[in-house]
Every structure is written in structure tokens, then in C-alpha cells.
Amino acid sequence: MLNTTYTPKRALLKLLNPLKRLMDREASIKYIHYLMFFKYLSDQLEEHFTKIIENKNIMLFEAYEDEVYYDLFKKEAINNFGYFLDYDNLFNNILYENKDKRINIDNLSEAFNQISNTANSNIFKDVFDEIDLISPKLVKVNDEKEELLYYLMEIISKFGYNQEKSIKTLFDTSIDYYLNHIKKTWILAADRDVNKLLANIATLNNEEIESIYDPFLGTGVLLENVFQLTNNPSIYGQDINLTAYNMTIMNLIIHGVDYKKLNLYFGDTISNPGHVGKLFDIIVSVPPFGSAYKVPYEGIKNKERFGNLKIGKSISKLEFYIIMHMIYHLKEDGIIATIVNQSALTRNVDRNIKQFIIDEKNYLDAVINLPPQLFTDSPVPTSILIFKKNRSPDDKVLFINAEGECESQRKKNILKDENIDKIVNTYKTRLEIDKFSKLIDVKSIKENEFNLTISRYIDNYKGEYIELNEAIMKKEKLNQKLEEITEKIQDLELELNLK
């Protein structure tokens, strides 16, 4: 029995502990995510149905047995939430149906299948396919599986739907654990501070935001952050990784996003885009740079999304092809805020694309260098690039050097709220601050051969400046002193017969 005073973090560790010997940490956290998600979906229906029969002098199980109420429940559930569960398939009823503290695996599978089979949206149709309740990797003996599932579900049951200690807080804790402790082989997922910075920049002018889009979903935290800062927009996104796709669905639904607002697609964003022709108000992303993902040449050659540029088979960097894809989907008054590897900013990287975006189209609005070591398990130095289509011809590009805006914690740096506020306010006001921010005209960037390396435009040296002649004189004096010391050493060696 779980001590109800347990924090979400302690509960999560208690959940993970028995799974350590059975599967790796990534598989363990995914397994727990599905059970949490099932708990949320079940509680959501149970609370809604309870409100329907409030003051009706009838118990929930009795209402389920009544044909009129049953039909009403099913219609309400599918219309409002996109799925339905029978009374016996609710989380708590599966948990406590047996007094021997075991879960009937067939009944749990039936509940998952009912969610898929009653779904009126693709969001729920296949979401539970990735969890294998009868996998021999779990435990070889069926009785042990049933006892383990009871143990896991009993802990999760202590976190409610609309309570201070809710299933949402437990899920958030598990996402943070995933980001901070599990090596991400399939995506470079940003921690919450980076997601918060991107979301705050992208939503500065959010009065009439109808749509947001992320071409690489990751954990869904970035989209969730943007959604919370806007007025209930539609959410679009895509990912080639099934875990990322499903994790985003779970994350957004648990955080209260209406399933009707979700337009997510499973597949390769570049070679098989799922939202062709759609335009979006806000586009945010942390692309999987530095990962095994490669730009598929056949997916980009001679495509309108890439400006019909002449693109060779030797593709140097991923970022600017993804940026071209995002620009294709951006509304005329929209904004793009995306993370890039700083190596993509240098002069010789994809120069033809940079020239097209910066000089011909004048879309680049800002370059923000981020502090090092912001990403768990990745030393890659990163920047934020911001793009807008509605810039005036004489608008300058804002460069911000925020490499020192962080606090060091253990093996990584984090962005505190004051760091985020300073960066966002500087971008919003477009103020020039000594050694921190500077406005640069496109002509100067062109003269620098489209090199966006921030040191080209912001002098961030904080030491004492010395005039060249003074430096030469100091060097001559040091050389003279070195010669004198060398002569004394030679004299001593002669005296001691060491030479």
C-alpha cells in the first residue's frame, strides 16, 4: 500500500524499482506512462458520468446497468472525449475486482482495446499498441505479471484526476525523469527550461493564434508549453518515432488539450509530410540534430517546400532543410522559433539556402546563442533562430549572446526564470545591450558571406583591452627578461658541471 504522503518523485521511483531487473529504463518509463494514461482516461470518464447522475439518487454502477443512462454515457464520452469504457473496464474496477491483489491481464487488455475500438479519432485508435502486457520480457510466469501489474496500478491509483496530487503531476515527474536520466537515442529532447524559453518567444504576440506546429514532436512538452500560453489553438505535429508520437498524445491529453484540437501524424516529416498545404501561426521545434536521423535526398529534391533550390546529394547540415520545410508551412504573419546546432551558423554550411532565406526573402529575425550544456547527454552548443515572413525591407536582424545566462547545476546548465525573462524581453524590445545584443543589417550579414556566428557581430570579450603598440613593447620586455634568465641558468649549469 502506498503511503499517501509520498511525493510524485518518490512514487515514480517506487514504480520503477521492480522493473529494473526486467527491462531497461526507457522501456520501464514507457510502460508506466501507458498505465498512467489509462488511469487519466478512466478518471476523466468517471468524473463526467458522476456529474451527470449527481442528485439523481442512483449509483454509477446502477446507471451503467440502465439502458438509457448507458446510451447517454456512451454518446457523451465519444462526443466529448473521443472514446468510451464500460463500467468493468474502468481503472479502479480492474484494480480492485480481485481480492488476491492480482490484475486480470485479459480484462486490462480488453479495456485498452475498447478505447481503441470506440475511438472516433485516430488519436486513440492505436495509442496502446506499443504496450505489450503479455511480453515474456515482463516476467515469465503469468502470476508474477498479474501481481506486478497490481503493484504498479495500486501506486498510480493514489493520484487522482483533479486533485493537488494528480495523475498530471505524476506524469510530469516521469517526463522530467525521462529527459534527465534516460539517454535519448531517437531525439534530442529539450529540458523544460529550453522549452519554456522557446514557448515564451513564440507567443509574444498571441492575440489571434489559431494553430501551432512542431515537425519533430519529441515528448510533446514544447507544444504543451505553447498551448498553455495561447487561447486553445489547434495543434499539429509529426514524428517518425512511434514512442515520441504516442508520448506527445499522452502528454497533451493529460494536460487538458481537447482531442479534437490534435492533428498529429506518424511518419517522416521531410520525405512524407503529413500536413502538406497547411499554414500555421506558430512553428516551434527542437530538431534531432546530432542524431542518427539523416535528410533523405529523394524527399527534398525539386520540392516546392525547399524553394526549388538546386540541392546536391551531399547534404551538410539538417537544420536549414528543416527550416525551409517550416517556412513553407508558416503564415505571412506567423513566427518560427527553432533550436539549431551552432555549427550550422558558420559560413560554408548550406550557403545557398542561407542566401535564399536571409537575402532574397529577408525572413531571419533573430539569432540567439544559448549557454553550453543545456541538453542532457549532449554537449552540442546550440542557438535559437527566429524567422518571420512579414519583416520590412529595412528591418535588421537581432543577435543576442546569452551564453552566460544560466546557472550551473551538477553536469549541466539550466535557464532560470530571470535568464529567460532577460532573453525574451531583449528580443521583444530589440534593445542593443553592450556585449549582449546588437542589431545587424542584412547587408552586413551578406558581406560576412552569411556567416551567422555571433562573435562576428557581438564583441563579448570581457577582459582588459591593450593597444597594439603597448602589447609589442610588453612582449619585447618579456623576451629580454627571458634571455637574462636563460643566461643565468646556463652560468649555473657550467658551475655545477651539468652541461
Automatic annotation (TrEMBL):
Tell me the ranges covered by the N6 adenine-specific DNA methyltransferase N-terminal domain, including all copies.
13-155
The keyword Protease appears for this protein: no
Q: Which regions form coiled coils?
A: 458-495
Biological process (GO) annotations? Answer: DNA restriction-modification system; methylation
Top-rank taxon of the source lineage equals Archaea
Enumerate the spans annotated as DNA methylase adenine-specific domain: 192-460
Q: What is the source species?
A: Methanobrevibacter oralis
Which reaction equations make up its catalytic activity? a 2'-deoxyadenosine in DNA + S-adenosyl-L-methionine = an N(6)-methyl-2'-deoxyadenosine in DNA + S-adenosyl-L-homocysteine + H(+)
Q: Write the lineage as a comma-separated list.
A: Archaea, Methanobacteriati, Methanobacteriota, Methanomada group, Methanobacteria
- EC number(s) for this protein? 2.1.1.72
- Asked whether the keyword Coiled coil is assigned, the reply is yes
One GO MF annotation is: site-specific DNA-methyltransferase (adenine-specific) activity
**InterPro entries recorded:** D12N6_MeTrfase_N, DNA_Adenine_Mtase, DNA_methylase_A-5, SAM-dependent_MTases_sf, T1MK-like_N_sf
Name it. site-specific DNA-methyltransferase (adenine-specific)
Which UniProt keyword terms apply here? Coiled coil, Methyltransferase, Restriction system, S-adenosyl-L-methionine, Transferase
